[in-house]
Amino acid sequence: MRIILHHSNSTKMLDIPTYNHLLSFAPDHLLTTNGMLLTPQNFQFMAPFSHVNATVRLMGGALSEDDRALAAKRLNVQVCRKCYARLSARAEHCRKRACGFSRKLRAKKKIRETSKK
Questions:
Q1: Nearest 10 degrees: CA dihedral of 32, 49, 4, 29?
Q2: Interval 21-75: pLDDT, tens
Q3: What is the pLDDT of residues 69-107, one digit of tens each?
């Protein structure tokens, strides 16, 4: 059995690689993105010239260096312990009058890395 994928204009325009395509026949998925068969018995019951739908999965990726630097810049700030104002990383005292220009500052807490299970 041979499966021929016809690329639509949207997959050519977006330059989506073929390993992100997911083949499905009826409600069952035939091939995963790794190319492994999930249900090999489906090939026996497929009629010749039957339609196999190819759907595209957009996988998440890593941030580019520019985006990573921008995110790090947002996290690199000081926080006033009295009024919780966000201050620059170089600040030595708070700029708010409500807390009396307090010198009690702390670094903003870092985001914990969560691993996918």
A1: -10
A2: 555 555 555 554 455 554 444 455 555 655 655 555 556 677 788 888 888 888 8
A3: 888 888 899 999 999 999 999 999 999 999 999 999 999
Name the residue among 22, 30, 32 with its Cα closest to residue 1: 30
pTM of the prediction? 0.43
Q: What are phi and psi of 28, to 5 degrees?
A: -95, 145
Strand order in the sheet with 105-107: 86-87, 78-80, 105-107
Distance (Å, whole) CA 85 – CA 88: 10
Domain boundary assignment for the chain = 9-56, 69-101
* Inter-CA distances, 114 with 111, 117, Å: 9, 9
Measured in whole angstroms, how far is the alpha carbon of residue 88 from the centre of its chain? 29
